[in-house]
Amino acid sequence: MTEVKRPVVAVFGAGKIGEALLSGLLHGGRSTDELVFTERSAARAAQLTADHGIPSADVADAAERADVLVVAVKPQDIEPLLDELAPVVGPGKLVVSLCAGLPTALFERRLPEGVPVVRVMPNTPMLVNEAMSAISAGAHAGPEHLATVEELMGVVGKVVRVPEAQQDAVTALSGSGPAYFFYLVEAMIDAGILLGIPRAVAQDLIVQSAVGAATMLAQGGDHPVTLREAVTSPAGTTIMAIRELERHGVRAALIDAIEAARDRSRELGAAHDQG
Ligand SMILES: NC(=O)c1ccc[n+]([C@@H]2O[C@H](COP(=O)([O-])OP(=O)(O)OC[C@H]3O[C@@H](n4cnc5c(N)ncnc54)[C@H](OP(=O)(O)O)[C@@H]3O)[C@@H](O)[C@H]2O)c1
Fold first, then answer.
1. Contact 96, 68 (CB under 8 A)
2. Known binding-site positions for NADP(+)
């Protein structure tokens, strides 16, 4: 059997998200010689190599060794990195941006003509290999590049393809999404305390309920309405709670909140679109 050569992956900026991706790829079966990263701080680079066994390199060296160049710096740090990358990104490389809000057009303007760029919006559950990533092709990226990124991000969670115009909506839904669930859990723990349950017990009750509900949603394939109706008996306890949620406009508040997040993402992206 001929062995298929897997692409070497370089991560530029191994902070929280970059490290989570490297660690996920290692646990998913990639070997340390298929991975490389760059970091601004030498001390952090040494620590990452000690923790994971993955070598660090400078930008030029990493860009030369890798087939897939994953950019994972903060959006405000992108310009100096692109200055360093532009002269060293050769033909045949695929650039993958994990940077929230940065359009593929920004990379295409700054990198050599024709370099394929795929934009990814991941989320923090990547830290536990449960990321939701939405990927979009730039002007020079084809189905084969999307397939490569699907395979890569698939190691640390689920992946969907969306047109780039929907990335602001994705940012509002799944990018910020975990924060809404944390907020909800926090509020429910407060309710437990109000009802006289010790904080630690309330936390266990709610977190496990969240895990159970999420597992039913993810594995069962039933619509959330069906699942909720199944626990909402006539004149029972759940319908009393649902009535209060509706009376307080929680559904409308969530819709407005997510729309506000989408608008903010658009605003932040617009700043990078000029120039
Ligand atoms: N965290 C999230 O929830 C999340 C979710 C979706 C997308 N993202 C995106 O993921 C990207 C990274 O986020 P993060 O939370 O992982 O940020 P982070 O922890 O600050 O990681 C970025 C890392 O890149 C390093 N760096 C900056 N410029 C560099 C350069 N020129 N060369 C090499 N290394 C460089 C930084 O070093 P210093 O510490 O020295 O600055 C830092 O270690 C962002 O663009 C963000 O929009 C994050």
1. yes
2. 72-75
Region 177-265: CATH code: 1.10.3730.10
CB contact set of 142 (below 8 Å; sequence gap of 6+)? 116
Rounded Cα–Cα distance for residues 204 and 198 (Å): 10
Helix (H) or strand (E) holding 51: helix 42-52
Pick from 96, 148, 144, 100: nearest CA to 124: 100
Task: Describe the chain by its helix, strand, coil percentages, rounded to 5.
Answer: 60, 10, 30
Q: How far is Cα 126 from Cα 250, in angstroms, rounded to an integer?
A: 28
- Paired sense of beta strands 94-97 and 117-121, if any: parallel
Distance 17 CA to ligand 1 centre (A): 7
Provide the CATH number for the domain formed by 9-167 in this structure. 3.40.50.720
Å from CA of 78 to ligand 1 middle: 10
Q: Does ligand 1 come within 6 angstroms of the Cβ of 96? A: no
CATH code 3.40.50.720 region(s) in the chain: 9-167
Tokens of 221: 């394939």
Q: 102 CA distance to ligand 1 centroid (A)?
A: 13
DSSP state of 76: G
- pLDDT digit string (tens) for 25-65? 999 999 999 999 999 999 999 999 999 999 999 999 999 99
In this model, does residue 268 exceed pLDDT 70? yes
Task: Tell me which residue has tokens 């309710």.
Answer: 191
Query: Ligand 1 in contact with 77 (CB < 6 A)?
Result: yes
99, burial (CB in 10 Å: exposed 0-12, middle 13-18, buried 19+)? buried
What are the start and end residues of each CATH 1.10.3730.10 domain in the chain? 177-265
* 178-192 confidence digits (pLDDT tens): 999 999 999 999 999
